[in-house]
Amino acid sequence: MRAVNNYIIIDKIKEETKTMGGFVLTEDQNKEVRYLKGKILSVGNLVEGVKPDDIIYYDRRAGHNIEFKEKLHHVIKIQDVVIVE
Prior knowledge:
The chain has no helices and eight strands. The protein has strands at 7-13, 17-18, 24-25, 35-43, 55-59, 64-68, 71-77, 81-84.
């Protein structure tokens, strides 16, 4: 599987946040966090500034999921990336 044009294929990195009371919030429960973390698998031919294996932060509302070879991946556009680690 390979991304084309301005698209990026990523694997989401699950992050948990602890509250002051010790409760663990998943990314779905923590709506205060606008950006999620992911690892780039493939970049389209028009994408610049990122490459496969980069860790990025992207808008939580961006993109859509796609299942390929029984594994779920996330597809976003380059303009949804806000930080590259």
